[in-house]
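fyi for ur records
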Amino acid sequence: MTCLVTGFPSKIAALQFEWAWQNTHQTRHIAPDERITQANTKQRFSPRTGKVRKRAGRPRMSMHDKLANLHILLRAKSFERWPLQVKFFAEDVYKMWHRWTVNMPEVIRQGIEVEMDESVLQKAALEEDPSNPVGIHKIDPTYQRMKTTLEKSRKLLVVPNNSCVICRSSLDSTKEMALVCSNQECNSIFHIGCLSTHFLNGEYGAQDAIVPTHGHCPSCESSLNWTDLVKDLSLRIRGEKEVTALFKEPKRRKKTVKESAKSAAIVDEDEAEEPDVLADESDPEVDFDDVLLQSDYEDVDQMQATPSGGDEWKLVDELNEQDTPSASSSAVKVRKAVIEDSDWDEAEVID
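which gave:
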């Protein structure tokens, strides 16, 4: 793919533009005197009926002709105010487009973006990282970028007693179409008719236009794109499925049968690779005469060194009771309490 045109208001609008681009010799969006290619009339004879049928054949077009027709369609009255974007994925085709537009006296509206995809030029470096899409895969066809704006507008319109910033009248979002400023720091709400008139009055060359393309917010003076405002409105009114999918929390991915079997096989391999603590009797390198059994360790634990510090050892069970000091042999000294004479013994008794 060398070129892609995006930004159509609907699927039907995209099909209209595609048919006009493929059939520039027949489309009514291009005046007959401005057409670069003309239709080739073909005749077909029917031997059964004996009649000759004439129909217009599609002429062959070169790359230069296709780019020239694209330039004409972008300047046509039917498409010039659409928020279209043209992106090239081939550098040589983009250079051909640039040479054509430089020599043309007519220019495309300033709001239509025509650019070269820079990721294609760095394709070799970006292909190594799968997280960085390249070319057409970089385009996001979802409403993910509208999530923040949509969340803000839903919270603002839930509050009752809203009013339009332009006409200062009440605004009921359940009965009227309301637009919300896309600036996150601005909470302005407008009637769709009030904001449309405000944008058209401030847009140069839009005296005969019905739908605006862009404008500035009356409150925060930030630049607003009309298509973004209307897209937010469309999602709130008739995009219930898209909004539900947009705010739906991702589910945890369950393991498949193959993954479960694979993890079980890995556990079995780990258990099989564990070394055996007990030696095998068939191992010739192990001398079982030198191996201590568990009972030998228990006997060693029951042994205790003699108090004299010699080399002899005695079992705990064989120790005499005489070796342990008894409580009766220890003398217990009892301290006698001494009570001294008190001075109250000589006190006189008063009757």
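Residues 276-284, 286-297, 303-334 have pLDDT under 50 and may be disordered. thats all i got for now
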